[in-house]
Amino acid sequence: MKVFVCKSCSVEGDFVDEVRVGLQEVDVVSVDCMSGCERAQTIAFRSPGKVAYLFGDITTADMDDLRNFVRLYLASEDGTFPDARVLGNLRTKAIARIPG
């Protein structure tokens, strides 16, 4: 599983490093731009054969929800969830869900 963090419109300094510390169990990669500048900070989750997710307006205050998302996403066979409420506040920050 890879987590992509946009570094071109970071609103919290070096947010990529914050995500690396907070999500140590996954591969965190910084990317130049994910075209989500109007909803900075953007972060995407992708795993082979699973739905990919793009979230915006992410801050360090979302770290617990991000850790929960990683746990649920890794446990999901196809990356989908029967009820979005388990995603906590991330469900209101979703920009896209991209088929696997």
Descriptive account of the structure:
The protein has 100 residues and is α+β, with helices and mostly antiparallel strands. It has a single domain, classed as Glutaredoxin, CATH 3.40.30.10. Strands 2-1-3-4-5 form a 5-stranded mixed beta sheet, covered by helices on one side. Helix 1 links the parallel strand 1 and strand 2.
Layout of helices and strands, plus pairs?
Layout: E1 2-6, H1 15-22, E2 27-31, E3 43-46, E4 52-55, H2 63-75, E5 94-98
Parallel strand pairs: 1-2
Antiparallel strand pairs: 1-3, 3-4, 4-5
Number of strands: 5
At CATH's second level, what is the architecture? 3-Layer(aba) Sandwich
The first-level CATH class is given as Alpha Beta
Strand residue percentage:
15-25%
3D shape: globular
Name the helix and strand elements from N-terminus to C-terminus, one letter apiece. Answer: EHEEEHE
The biggest sheet amounts to: 5 strands, mixed
Low-confidence stretches: none
Please state how the strands of the largest beta sheet are arranged side by side: 2-1-3-4-5
Find the CATH topology: Glutaredoxin
**Quick one: CATH superfamily?**
Glutaredoxin
In whole angstroms, the N-to-C terminal distance is 13 Å
Mean pLDDT: 92
Quick synopsis:
It contains two helices and five strands.
